[in-house]
Each structure stands twice: as structure tokens, then as C-alpha cells.
Amino acid sequence: MSERLTKCPLCKSGHFLNHQELIDHAVTKESFVICKCTQCQLLFTNPRPEETEIARYYEFPEYFSHNDQSSSLTQFIYNLARKQNIKKKINLIESYKNSGRWLDYGCGTGELLSAAKNRSWKVTGIEPNEKARGLANAKLENKVFQSIEEIRETKKFDVITLFHVIEHIHSLRKTIKSLLKHLKPDGYIIIAVPNPESWDALKYGPFWAGWDVPRHLYHFNKTCIKGLEELFTMKLIDEKPMKMDSFYVSLLSEGYQNQKSLGNFLKGFTSGMRSNIEAKKTNNYSSNIFIFQKR
Fold this sequence. Notes:
It is a single chain. This protein is about 35% helix and about 25% strand. It is of the alpha/beta class. The strands form three sheets. It has a seven-stranded mixed beta sheet. The chain has a four-stranded antiparallel beta sheet with strand order 2-3-4-11, with no helix packed on it. Strands 1-5 form a two-stranded antiparallel ribbon. The model has no long low-confidence stretch (mean pLDDT about 90).
């Protein structure tokens, strides 16, 4: 079953236009229409699978964030990159807050929280996927829940992170508001998203892996991200690039564009490097991290 939206899921404007049609290259090969809000510039899938139906689009072994093991070269590269990114993410968080309570929304198999726990953070996770949640709880002593509603209202966090998660959430406004209620007055909420205006996004067009329809319900440019300040009680205080994402996204994109080819790895690496070089001029990296503080 699909759900047709009559208002922008972010700003609630009724003014939006069909933007482009994209294919689910990873699983079903189905086509999905992307609309663009004329007010906040959010790109969103419309119509989209209902929340009760979306799970089947995640049911493939290459959905890496729900698995710990490497079963392919691409997944091996992903897991290597994930280990490096974990160190960078923790260092980033600790440049703003060096201890306290940390909630990771969409924590996957719990690798980030496990590393944070070893640095003396008090950690909690949210992970809707049952398989990934089970793997995470095995590491984190049942500190990972299926939804934010399972966490008591009085529990507050110093840091809440959503690394490549916000684009998956059906109840977008409701979830952000719920998370902010669990954030301390001086707390930080950190959001990482793919950038549809990056060099690799423009190069690969409809084959860009960052679209990842219909799993990615939304696509945020920087204007859209900045608009979150006005919609919610938080202030954008900093922005950081995720430089390694361009290599992984380019590798996947090459596979979608050229199917299986021995040259995909080299082409993907070259495109990833070119994307980061171009981003030095425009600041439009393949993915960006946005640091907000509660107002």
C-alpha cells in the first residue's frame, strides 16, 4: 500500500511540484516520483510506501547498516569505512561535549554506541529493525529500543545523533519534536544526511546511490537544513563534511550505472576523490554533518 501526501512532510506547505522519477536500483526496480516543496525545498517521495509496508524494501543482504559481517567487497569496504568514521564521529561529539548521556537514533547494530560506551558515555539507542536491534543489544546490555516512545519522558540527553537516519523517518516532524523533548537545554542534536547537490550526485544523476528510493523518503539541501532552525527550537551552529562517503556512494553508483564491471572500483574511487576536490570549492560534500544546539 502507498501513501499519497497532500502537504510537505516538513513545513506542511501544500505547494510542491513533481521533480523527477527515480528507480529503486537496490531491490525492486520499482519507480518512485520525487516532489519538491516550493517553500522549504525539501525533496520527498510521493506517493511513498506506508510505514507498515516499508520493511520489505530493506530486506536484502547488502543493506549494510543492519549487518555486522562482510559478504562482499563493497560491504568489506563499508565496514572498514564505518570503523574509521566511528572514531571521527566520537571525536566530533567530544569537541562539543566530552561526557554525559548519548542517544543514537537509528543506531543500527550499535557499533558507534559501543565505542562511545568504552569512552565512558552513558548510551541509549533507538533501532526499529529487529535484526539490527538484536545485534546492538547483545553489545549494549539491552539499552536499545524500538521507538522513542519506549524511553521515559523524564530521561534527558546531552547529545542526540541521527547519522544518515532522518531521511528514513515517516513521522518526520513528530519525531524531531519528540527528540527535542528528550534533549537537555544546552544539549546538541547532530544530523548527517546525503547531499543531492554534491558533485557525485550531479555526476550520477538518477543512478546516484544517495537517492536510495524508497528507503530514503527525503533529500535535504543546505537551504532545507537551515530551515530546521525556524521550524524547531534549535540553532545550527556548525557543519562538517563526511569525506569518506563520496567513495562508498560513488562505488555503489557505478554499480547501478554499469552493472557488474571490473572497472567499477577504480571509477568509484576516482569519482569519490573528484567529488571531495570539487567540494573544497563549493562546500557541497557527498554527505554533511549538521550540528544543532537546543534554543
